[in-house]
Amino acid sequence: MRRAHIKLSILLLIMGVFLASCRKDEEVIRPTETEITTPDDSGPIKGFFLLNEGNMGSNKATLDYFDYETGKYHKNIYADRNPGVVRELGDVGNDIQIYGNKLYAIINCSHFVEVMDVCTVKHIKAVSIPNCRYITFKGKYAYVSSYAGPVKIDPNARLGYVAKMDTTNLEVLDTCVVGYQPDEMVIVGNKLYVANSGGYRVPNYDSTVSVIDLESFKEIKKIEVGINLHRMELDNYGNIWVSSRGDYYNTPSKTFVIDSKTDIVTDELDLLPNSNMTLCGDSLYIYSTEWSYITNSNTITYAIMNVKTKRVVTRNFIKDGTDKKIKIPYGLMVNPENGEFFVTDAKDYVTPGTLHCFASDGIRKWSVTTGDIPAHMVFTRKAVINN
Amino acid sequence: MKQLLRLSFIVLFNISLSHTTNSQTKVDTTKIYNLLEVNIIRDKIRNEIIPVQVLSGKELKSLNAYSVADAIRYFSGIQIKDYGGIGGLKTVNVRSMGSHHVGVFYDGIQIGNAQNGIVDLGRFSLDNMESISIYNGQKSALFQPAKNYASASALFLRTKTPVFKNSKTNHLNVGFKTGSFDLYNPSVLWEHKFNDKISSSFNTEFMYTSGKYKFTYAKKDGYKTTETRKNGDVKMLRIEGSLFGKIKNGHWKTKLYLYDSERGYPGASVREEPGKFKHQDRQWDNNFVVQGSFKKKLTTNYSLLLNAKYAYDYMHYLSDPRLDVSTMYVNNHYKQQEAYFSAAQLYSINYLWSVSLASDIQFNILDADLTNFVYPERYTILNALASSFCFNKLKVQGSLLHTRVINSTKVEGGKAKNMSEFTPTLVLSYQPFSEDKFHIRAFYKRVFRMPTFNDLYYTFIGNKNLNPEFTSQYNIGATYHKQFESGLVKNIKIKVDAYYNEVEDKIIAIPTSNQFRWTMINLGIVEIRGIDASVSTKFKIRDFYINTLLNYTYQKAQDFTDRNSEWYGGQIPYIPWHSGSLITNITHKGWGFNYSFIYTGERYEAVANIKENYAQPWYTHDLSLSKEIKFNKYFLRITGEVNNVLNQQYEVVQCYPMPGTNVKFKLNLIL
Q1: CB contact under 8 A, B612 and A371
Q2: Domains of chain B
Q3: What pLDDT score was predicted for residue B20?
Q4: What b/e string do you get for B247-273 counting C-beta neighbours within 10 Å, with b at 16 or more?
Q5: In chain B, which residues have their Cβ closer than 8 Å to the Cβ of A155?
Q6: Which residue in B223, B325, B611 is closest to A83 by CB distance?
Q7: A86, B225: Cβ pair inside 8 Å?
Q8: Most A CBs within 10 Å, among B216, B221, B269, B271, to test the A interface
Q9: What is the ipTM score, two decimals?
Q10: A23–B268: do the CB atoms touch at under 8 Å?
């Protein structure tokens, strides 16, 4: 009998412990603020947004903001600014841009473009575009590349498209079918160039850049470039720099140059593997994380290319050895005002990454922990705030 | 025709021993099973020198569970990874070493999946299940196939063996289940006794569920959304036929198993425009297994156990952008075959000392219509030498397993390396007092799991240079068991084990150049420190029989992969520090009442133990009431269940919401 009593009290005690650690209402996750550098109010650039992709299927795309004026890094601000938006920012952030007073985030696996107010980061509208990838602008319109083109007879041969969106009423007005799995775009005059990857069609990669006439919004030609194209960057001389991922076996990653005046490939730079690039003046900053299924390893390289001379200026723009600590360079951006540049480290893709800030001489100034897979960055300018 | 029939009989029969039947050997004195015994979870504390938990008989029946996976949530030291709903993938992870380290044995023979190493426990019905047991380390018997030594922990699923009382020669149990999620689940079990030597069992079951349920996500002072889970439907047909035979000093058993299913994959629940995309991914599975075993004591000292199996698994996965514009086209077919043969021999040197040698050979082959696929094959040859001694109050059992793996591929140059490894186990049990109530036990085991075919060869992900993933386990524990002649408490069993596990060369996925391309490497190091404790009691108050079982688990499972990582030493994903369960079962004059409670404490969804990855505790209360009515010669059993009574909205796996309150009714007619 006594034993039963003892047992009962043990039971109640354990139940008590369980109940003590009960569920509470789920709280909105508040931003994490870090003071990382001294405030600097000098330049026209106010700060920048960083879009963290978040691993696929985890609904963990997040938005961070760095403020030059306070020197503070605000990690994960979207949910806090928009507690009423169901399921936060979404699944896999793939691009971020500012145009006018609006901030546009492409949420790839949530299949929409999240449009926010650039000053307040308040949600304005989610514009549905299935499997959307990148965004670019001209005049009144935004252009969004998407993998989800019409399915013809063979579902495996599904072309992608570029959607044309009105930036005032945020409606998709038209679509233009291009090549397979189109990625980044640039606009030169009245022509939109989009890099077709064909990444879903392994080993039959696409190898073309589609050219769309923006007047008629029709594809006018395809330029044969190289397999599995991805990034595009337009320099000040009318040349388009295009990255090819290669096939991860015997065809390595490369950089190509297209002359937009003639639409002819003028250069094929075999020794310039390219995962991501960004232009500042005549300097094209490039890194490459090249996977090989033959060696089962990644090869990471950095380079600055002079786009005028088309010569490599340096093979390592990080000068203090920080590059050894970067596991997977992922995001890249240069501040055009002071030449300081930013490199993110995506690490193992399932834990928070790191953002490194380097002075123009390649010496690290500061680092901060970001969300998962820090990837895409865009500067905010004071002019925008004053609007 | 008759000739053909007989031939097919011979082919199908082969050979089997049921674990149920007490072995005649001197060492294996374990009273493994007693059909009449009534208790909820039978820890064979007094006999087993290795930690084991068992769920069987009536208690298994009265648990609120849709499948084997739901039932084993009540065990201590385990975590179920559950993607939600009846059709969602459910795997078991024992003591945080990962689900690849759990061998799942169906009627004594391991269920293979050379392709991905995963056994979906949600697919195993409780309908024909007689007992479910989980062993840490290995089953502490000597007389078993080498495979039984070859995993870090083992889950044994044992189907019903017919037992005929009096002059009965037929048993029939016709059942029907229905309830939430549009569940329709008719089943038939027919057992027949041909003669004193041979009996048979035939069991078939059909199940349909739409898999639809509502779930809610809400934030305090923020959004609240209720959505319906779609494309979680399952259509399943299972047919099993078995023959059981008795021979002089032995038994045989053979089984034919067919499984056919079609299911939808609802996918991760992430932000998207509500109702816009259909999520139309589908999977079809066909499994065919024929297995048998034969056990015989050939001389006073020598016994032989033979096991054999052939399995064919077909899987078809389809993701079609014509049905859902957001997906990419995937249309893959996988065909796996496995052949297995095992011979185990036991020699009892004297009353206290026995030696056994088990030799297994297994062949696996995988065919798939993937780009650049290498078409792998693998031979696995296992030899286990084991011995046990009894010195007065001390029992010692040791085994040494040799594994040899020979890999090949049809495409030249694609093969993974071969390997040859010895792995040991040592088990001790000591009874410090003369009374047989209190025992101290300990074990050490080192074993590995081979990289799966997917790990090695999956196009664009596989890495053929992988090494096996090793685990080391150290366990110390104590058991106490006391029965009472008078008073309300009839029986009390207490069990506590503390353990330390290491996982080395853990095979993990790492990204390559972008997040859509991953590969596998040997990198991870995990250290797990844990405590499992359980108390089970039986009370009798007048005509009320009350059984209770309380389990508690503490686990600290840390990732020590990268010393320079900010998250070095973080608790690994989905492992709660604290978890537990309580089952209370009351029977009274044909009525049965069951209350079960499961608690999973706070945990993180990633090794970065930060607020973004924090997951709240979840706990569910389940109730069931049943009544057995006797009409003349037959019984009618009616059961009603309410699960997740408080309608808790929770996730076990991130972005895979679990069902809220749901109900189930069961009707069984037993002849």
Answers
A1: yes
A2: 1-41 (no CATH), 52-670 (2.40.170.20)
A3: 30
A4: eeebbbbbbbbebbbbbbbbbbbbbbe
A5: 320-322, 329, 331
A6: B223
A7: yes
A8: B271
A9: 0.92
A10: no
Interchain contact, B270 vs A328, CB within 8 Å? no
**pLDDT of A308:** 97
- Asked whether B494 and B467 are in contact (CB, 8 A), the reply is no
Report the distance separating Cα A180 and Cα A131, nearest Å.
Answer: 13
**Contact between B205 and B177 (Cβ < 8 Å):** no
The answer to whether A22 faces chain B, any CB pair under 8 Å, is: yes
Chain centroid offset of residue B255 CA: 19
CATH class for the region spanning A28-380? mainly beta
Residue A12 has pLDDT above 80, yes or no: no
How many Cβ atoms sit within 10 Å of the Cβ of residue A247?
Answer: 15
Q: With an 8 Å Cβ cutoff, are A21 and B617 in contact?
A: yes
- Which among B585, B542, B544, B623 has a CA at the least distance from the CA of B39? B585
Residue pLDDT, tens place only, B587-628: 998 899 999 999 999 999 999 999 999 999 999 999 999 999
CA A254 to CA A229: how far, in whole Å?
9
**Closest CB from B223, B322, B612 relative to A29:** B612
Which of A243-247, A364-368, B17-21, B236-240 is the least confident region? B17-21
What pLDDT, in 10s, does the model give residues B262-300?
999 988 999 998 878 888 899 999 999 999 999 999 999
The answer, for A125 touching chain B at a CB cutoff of 8 Å, is no
Among partner residues B320, B371, B516, which is closest to A203 by beta-carbon distance?
Answer: B371
The count of CB pairs under 8 A between chains A and B is: 196
In this complex, the residue of B488, B492, B655 whose CB is nearest that of residue A58 is B655
As given in the structure block, the two tokens for residue A130 are: 């299935």
Confidence of residue A369 (pLDDT cuts 50, 70, 90): very high
Q: Are B605 and B615 in contact (CB under 8 A)?
A: yes
Q: What are the extents of the domains in chain A? A: 28-380
b/e burial code for range A163-198 (CB count within 10 A of at least 16 → b): bbbebeebeeeebbebbbbbbbbbbbeebbbbbbbb
Residue numbers in A near B267 (CB within 8 A)? 57
Chain B touched by A129 (CB under 8 Å): no
Phi first, then psi: give them for residue B12, nearest 5 degrees.
-70, -35
